[in-house]
Amino acid sequence: MRIGELARRGGTTTRALRYYESLGLLTARRTANGQREYDEQDLRLVAEIRSLTGIGFALEDTRPFVECLRTGHPSGDACPASVAVYRRKLAELDECIARLEEARQRVRAQLDQAEQRRRPCTR
User: Is 43 helix (H, G, I), strand (E, B) or coil?
Assistant: First the structure.
């Protein structure tokens, strides 16, 4: 399939596909007249990349998953390098959640103080 069809079927743009190719995440075969040509395996790689970036992974983080699929594994997370990326991403998310919870507690305390100051004095 040509790049336009891959983009349409993969739910992305031709520009994104060219970018993936520039990063080495996709490798297009070239026809005699120089046009990019892809197959169903490439569609699977695009789906994996889009799935992972859709949940917050950076493009570079998708590389182990793509490489795992390229080596013939049925799933992009069947390889140890992919599992390591999951673990790292989960640790990053846990750290972010902890910072957000701390910020929430500080905002809650500030709100409680503001509400206390607004209450009329009753004697």
Answer: helix
Domain ranges for the chain, please list them: 3-118
Please give the structure tokens belonging to residue 55: 């949940």
Report the alpha-carbon angle 52-58-63, nearest 5: 70
29's enclosing H/E stretch is strand 29-30
The hierarchical CATH code for the domain 3-118 is: 1.10.1660.10
Ordered per-residue pLDDT tens for the chain, 123 residues: 999 999 999 999 999 999 999 999 999 999 999 899 999 999 999 999 999 999 999 999 999 999 999 999 999 999 999 999 999 999 999 999 999 999 999 999 999 999 998 877 655
pTM metric for this prediction: 0.83
Q: In terms of C-beta distances under 8 Å and separation of at least 24 residues, what long-range contacts does 15-18 make, across chains too?
A: 17/46
Nearest-10 Cα torsion for 34, 35, 41, 47: 130
State the Cα–Cα distance between residues 40 and 46, nearest whole angstrom: 10
User: SS3 of 72, please?
Assistant: coil
